[in-house]
Design a protein that fits this description.
146 residues; alpha+beta; five-stranded antiparallel beta sheet; 3 helices; 27% strand
Length: 146
Amino acid sequence: MYQINSGHMYGGLTFTLNGQNMFKEMVETDDLFATWSSLLSYYEIEGFQPKQSRELFFGQITFMIKNGRDSKNPQVQFVNQYERMTTVWVPFEVLKQAIAKGFVEFMAIVKEEVINHRVDEDGDPFEMHHCLPYLLERYKEISRKG
């Protein structure tokens, strides 16, 4: 579920592993475009760096992704500092595939609803979000890979 206000799409993401939500509920963000850009940047540009943490953009919430120590068996853990919750350790490749899958599903909605219509929930037109060109390019590349 999402809503658009002046070109910013707000809503939330769920993080599931083996059919179970890793947090007790959806993690909300006030800018889904910037959140997806942050997630993609983490796994595509920076990648797994042992013992490093990275802050992810989730609007008002400080959300971190923590890399494990073993580069031969890379694992990551999400830390929601607002709720003081952490997830189990997840293999980096599992996370990478989940981000790509979730992103493609998200962009299928965005491509039709947001890009083609560019009207928010009040019926007001809006300019394209600054993250959208990057997200559209990534969507094309990830979709081609299948």
